[in-house]
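step 4 of 6: structure.
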Amino acid sequence: MARAVTPAHKATVTFFAWAIGLLIFFPILWTILTSFKTEAEAIASPPSFVGFDWTLENYSTVMERSNYFLHFLNSVVISVGSTLIGLLIAIPAAWSMAFVPGKRTKDVLMWMLSTKMLPPVGVLIPIYLIFRDTGLLDTRTGLVIVLTLINLPIIVWMLYTYFKEIPVDILEAARMDGASLRAEIIYVLTPMAVPGIASTLLLNIILAWNEAFWTLNLTAAKAAPLTAFIASYSSPEGLFYAKLSAASTMAIAPILVMGWFSQKQLVRGLTFGAVK
Amino acid sequence: MVWRFENDRLLCRQTANLEEGRSKRLDREESMKFKSMLLGAVSLGVMTGLVHAETITIATVNNGDMIRMQKLTDDFTAKNPDIDVEWVTLEENVLRQRVTTDIATKGGQYDVMTIGTYEVPIWGKQGWLVSLNDLPESYDIDDLLPAIRGGLTVDGELYAAPFYGESSMVMYRTDLMEKAGLEMPEAPTWDFIAEAARAMTDKENEVYGICMRGKAGWGENVAFITAMSNSFGARWFDMDWKPQFDQPAWKDTLTFYLDLMEDAGPPGASSNGFNENLALFQTGKCGMWIDATVAASFVTNPDDSEVADKVGFALAPDKGLGKRSNWLWAWSLAIPAGTDNEAAAKKFIEWATSKEYLELVASKEGWANVPPGTRTSLYENPEYKKVPFAEMTLQSINSADPQNPTVDPVPYVGVQFVAIPEFQGLATVIGQQFSAALAGTITAEQALQSAQQIATREMTKAGYIK
C-alpha cells in the first residue's frame, strides 16, 4: 500500500530538495556570476550578487589569449575516445564476470578496483618515462590510453552491477535459440543494458573531461585539454579571479549542457535495478 | 597542502631513484641514440624539400609581465622568421611540478622554462640546465643587477637569464600615516612599524594597521617569516646544518609577528596570502602591507585600486642588526639540458631579457609596465626614474644578498628559502605550524618546537646531520 503523502510533507521535502540542490550548485553559479565582473568587483567585499556592471571583457580577454577551440577539441577527443575504448573492453569483461563467474571473479574485481587506490603521483615518473620513450608525451593518443586505463575499473564495475540485474535466463533462452556468443552480447544483452551502458558512458565522459592530474602532467602545448586551459588562468601573484571564472565557465559549459540533456539517462542509469 | 607535500615527497623519492638508475640506463641510451639517429636520418630524407620552421615550446607562469611577453611574441618571430613559438602557461605550483618532472626525466617537452631563484642553484648543480655564459657581447651580461645575477649563477656559470626581479618592501597609506601623526622613514625599524601599525588600526571601520602573509606555504608565509627572521638574527641552520628553531632569535621573530598581527592585523589572517592581502590593501583595509615589490604597480593602478594616489613606499624593516627583512626573487628563463632546439631557445632568451625588450614594452605600454629588477641600465634611464616605485625597488633588491643572507654565517644560499631540494617539503610542513600559531590553535613555542623536531628529523634522514 502506498504511503499517504500530505501536501505539507510534500512541500517540506520539495523545499529541502531545492535547498540542497542550490547549495551544491552555488559554487558553479558564483563562478558564472564572477566571470561577468571586473577584476576589482570580483574581489570586492562585501561581494555583490547581481548589482554590478555586467561585462564580457573577461571572455574576450580569454578568447584572445588562448586557443579555446584547440583545448576544447582535445577534451572532446580524449574524453569520448577513452570512454568508447573503455566500453569496448569492459562490456565483454563485465559479461564474463556477471554471467560466467569463476572462483576468482570477486578477487579479480577487487584487484581491479585496488588500482584506483594508489595516488596517481606514485606512478607519475614511470609513466612519464614510458611516454617519453614511446613518443606519447603531449599526444592525444597517449592521453586516451592513460584515461582508458584509469577509468576502466570504474566502467567494468558499473557494467558488472548492471549486468547482474539482468536475468541470466533470458540469455540462456537466446543461447537455446542458437545465438552465438557474439550475437548474444550484441543483440540480447546490450539492448537490455542500454540504460546502464548509457549512464556509464556519460559518467565516464564527465570523469575524463574533468580529469586534471594526468591531463596536466602529460601534456605541454599540443594535446592540452581544457583542464590546462583553466590552469593557465590561476596565479599566486595578481588579480585573476574574474578571468579564471570566465575560463572555468567556458570549460564546464559543454559538459553542463550535455549533462542537462542527458539527465534522464543519467538518473535512470544510476537508479537502474531493484536494489539501488 | 598535505596532498601536495606527499606529492613532493613521492616525486623527490622517485627522482632520487632515477638518479641511481641513470648509470644503468646508459647502455640502453646508447642503443636508443643509435635508433633515434637512424630515425632522424630517415625523417630528414622525408622532410627534405619541406621548409620547416623550428618550434620552441616555452613554459611560463601566469603573471602580468609574462602575459605581456606572450603578446609581444610577434616582434621576436618577425626578427626570427625561422622560429615558431608555442606557449604553455600554468599556475606557479602546477608549473613547478610539471617542469620538475620533465627535467628530472629529460622528457624534452620544453625548450625554455620559467623558473625561480630557488630552482636555479639546485638544477644548475645537477647539470640539468644549459649554461648561458656564451650569450653575445651585445647582450651585455654585466648590465644584469649583481644581486640577481649572483642568485642565478652556480660556480661561475650563469644558468638562467632574469626576466624580472623582485624584492619586498613596505607599502603604506600616506593619508593614514599622516592621520596617526607619524612619518615613515625611508628605512624603518620593526619597532617603528609596530608602533605605526597599532596607531593606524581602527577595527570598527575595518582598517587594520598591518597586513602580512599568514597562509601556509613555502612560497607564502614561510617566505615572509624567513626573510623577517633574517633581520632578527635568526637562521634556519647553523654551519653544521643543525636546525636553529630552538634559538631565542626565532622565538623573538615569531612572537613579534604573532603579537603584531593580533593587535593590528586583519581577521582570518592565517588564510591571507599575496592575493588576499592585495585585495585588502586595494580596498583600503590595510594601513601597511609588507610584500613583493611587484605589488607596487598593482596598488598604484587607479583601475583596480581605490587607494592608488595614497600609497608610499619604504624599505623592508630591520632590527638594527645589519640585515633587512626583504627577500630576493627572480623569475628567470632557462634552457633544459638536452633540448633539440638549444640555439633557437637561446635566441629567444636573448630577446626576452634584452635591453631592447625593455624599450619595446615601454614604447607599447609605458615605462611603469616594464619588467623590473633585472638591468642596471634600466635604473639609470631618466624616463624610468620617474616611475614612483622604481628607486625603492632597486634599493630593496640591492639590499638583499642571497649568498650571505643572515646575521650569523650559514651554509646555504637563499634569502627567503634554503636552496636545497629538501626545503620545499620541509617548509610546507613548517609553514602549517606557523599558520596554526597565527590562527591561535597552537602557541608560538609549540610551533617552533615542532618546526625544530621536523627539521631535525628530515635533515638527519637526508644525510645533512651526521
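step 5 of 6: annotate
 - Residues 241 and 464 of chain B are 6 Å apart (CA to CA).
 - Chain B touches chain A through 52 residues (CB under 8 Å).
step 6 of 6: archive
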